[in-house]
Amino acid sequence: xxxxxxxxxxxAAARFKVTGSGKLLRRRQNSRHLRRKKSKKTIRKYRIxxxxxxxxxxxxxxxxxxx
Length: 67
Description:
The protein has one domain (10-57). Helices cover 31% and strands 12% of the residues. It has 3 helices and 3 strands. The chain has helices at residues 10-15, 40-45, 55-63, and strands at 17-18, 24-26, 50-52. Strand 1 (17-18) and strand 2 form a beta hairpin. The longest helix is centred in the last third of the chain and has 9 residues, at 55-63. It is elongated. The two termini are 23 Å apart.
């Protein structure tokens, strides 16, 4: 019987990054526009990637073919 390869969802691959230990990182929200009214401290915080946790992380890993 023929085995099929699992395809990666490219939308998920573009948005998330997998670390060496298997954690998922994502960009922060609210960082794209209307930045004038936001403080410089807040804008700097947007550069830092945050970890995705819980069931959501498990689903994303399945989309990326890691689970």
